[in-house]
Amino acid sequence: MTKRYAVILAAGQGTRMKSKLYKVLHPVVGRPMVKHVMDQLNAIQLDKTVTIVGFGAEKVIDTLGNVCEFAVQEEQLGTGHAVLQAADILKDLDGTTIVVCGDTPLITEETYRALFEQHEKEGASATILTASTPNPAGYGRVIRNKDNEVERVVEHKDANAEELLVEEINTGTYCFDNQALFSALQEVSNDNAQGEYYLPDVIEILRGQEKKVSAFLTPNFDETLGVNDRVALAQAEKTMKQRINERHMRNGVAIIDPDNTYIHPDVVIESDVTIHPGTIIKGETTIKTDAEIGPNSEISNCYIGEGTVVKQSVANDSKIGNRVKIGPFAHIRPDSTIGDDAKLGNFTEIKKTSLGNGSKISHLSYIGDANVGDNVNIGCGTITVNYDGKNKFLTTIEDDAFIGCNSNLIAPVTIGKGSYVAAGSTITNNVPDDALSIARAKQTNKEGYATKFKNRKKD
Ligand code: UD1
Ligand code: CA
Known about the structure:
Active site: 363 (proton acceptor)
Cofactor: Mg(2+)
Radius of gyration: 31 Å
Catalytic activity: N-acetyl-alpha-D-glucosamine 1-phosphate + UTP + H(+) = UDP-N-acetyl-alpha-D-glucosamine + diphosphate; alpha-D-glucosamine 1-phosphate + acetyl-CoA = N-acetyl-alpha-D-glucosamine 1-phosphate + CoA + H(+)
Region (Linker): 231-251
CATH architecture of the largest domain: Alpha-Beta Complex
Subunit structure: Homotrimer.
Bound molecules: uridine-diphosphate-N-acetylglucosamine, calcium ion
């Protein structure tokens, strides 16, 4: 089988983005564009992949990790010059090289595969992935001769009035015979409107050498969007989001309003989960069957168990059990674990806390750095006083304890199994199992004092 290589162009600064962040690192549905490109290419068996980096090289290398080799383009002199930087690694090898731009995040594995297949079947020297659009502004136009063969690509800025009318565009993706590519690149000049070495000029050079040049016209223009500015970035976000949401819906997930639901690529959702509008689900999150998420919730890196309901809430880096009720307006901060059948009601915040099975924090509480056992009831307004300004301290609340409303538990402290804390207590010492602890000022009633008070004479 023919050996296959890839070159990803990721050295451009992306001035049109008007951003400190390098273009190919801008996220689309939470993932840098260049990583989307790499993910799709990775699904194809490739013998070598070289990413061309320049601006922000270290950040791009960090983002992609060791899944490919890198070549540095010190000065961004154009896409043709960029590919030449891979010459040391690739130029003598036999096989097919796909060249892909790091700013076309929507092209799918299937399209890459189809391009490879047509190119190899036809024995072409070059095959351009093209697409047709009534709005080709900004793209290079594919110029064909009267026999409908591809002759060359003309950049928007170099095109004459007639060429500007052409609706077939260069997607910036090509398959080449590897050695023909590197030899033709030697002949590319920078005599054009932008003073750059254009990769698409290789097409005309190869034709001049009587080599076969072909095009693969994809019907999916949507996939080929090149992201040069923030307007295109928002379009890419929309298309990618829709693609991900449709995948989940086909797998049996109910998404009430797909236009207002944002699910990042690695999220796993089982069938019969319902996602309400305004929900963002990020990172490595798993949601088990029959759960209901949203409206207006943000979940990041969480495991959410079967039948759990999360309404108008935020949860990060935590594990939530089965049949748990969360919200409205709860905040689950990192490193928390919530047991089955637990409840976290409105305006409760937990952090680095494990909450046992069947335990309830129904309203207005802050529980941080705490180990809470099973079937504990934490009353409204309870606070674990975990921080002295320097260090954090642990609160332990054992099984079946009952914490009355508006209590301060000053950590480190342990509330024993089955014990009661009276409402309004400030607990500074451990409470033994099965005890009732009352830690509040004693009430004094002054009989008849109210009337006396009201009848005071004015001065
Ligand atoms: C390019 C094509 C155009 C095509 C379009 C598709 C050229 C000359 N033009 O135009 O025909 O329609 O893509 O989206 O190729 N890059 C480098 N080094 C450089 C210059 C660019 O690595 O010196 C990288 C960029 O990071 C980017 C990619 O190459 O990922 C494409 O460059 P860009 O400047 O966006 O080219 P376009 O003007 O979009
Ligand atoms: Ca581009």
